[in-house]
Amino acid sequence: MGRARVSVVMPVYNEETTLEAIVRRVKEVAPDVELIAVDDGSADGSASILNRLEAEGLVDRVLVHERNRGKGAALSTGFRRVKGDIVIIQDADLEYDPAEYPRLLEPILAGRADVVYGSRFMGGQPHRVLYYWHYVGNRWLTRLSNMMTNLNLTDMETCYKCFRREVIEQLTIEERAFGVEPEITAKVAMGGWRVYEVGISYAGRTYAEGKKIGWRDGISALRCIFLYGLVRRWTRRGGPRASREATGDIHGGVESGES
Question: What's the whole-model pTM score?
Fold first, then answer.
């Protein structure tokens, strides 16, 4: 294969205060990526911002949910439309820095990985100091997920997940909301894909700044950890199968997917 094409899928829900900044940041550091934004029924000015950015050529494609359906649904919609060889998930806030893309891509481009997680907890990268109990909850959920999947991740709930296209083509996302994180993790483990983890920086935001995730999402994550990591793994239902003949053939530089 020649140069690998990269697609970025960005779920958007009521992010008018950060949306334009993060889109411009993506295109500043990775101008050739295919950027697909999924407006998940936003009730603020996000839709008009996306339309303007699409007209400016900064967003390659805007997909719209007429009502809010959740992050999992937005990812599922975006995944079905990507044209890249590698796919990165990018939130529409400023907590995750697109300057980390080369770090996420390197294990796949080198032919060592099929999936790469960007960990906020591996150390060595700066992160904003915020909520202690969020940190404890994330580590606890990751530990439970690892027990179900037999992976040794440090940050299962991270936004930054990077996939070879063959992986997402075999992923059927069932969860509509934030339970998609443990669901994807369990199905990747079930599929036997090669998973790497790299340290990333993190600039977390407060609730006053627009943070949305809460304790109910933690309860949902617990349900999904046991459903997909234990029940489905035991019954072998709903998981992808690694396409071994396709692994290890992405290398070289990065260019955009066709729009």
Answer: 0.84
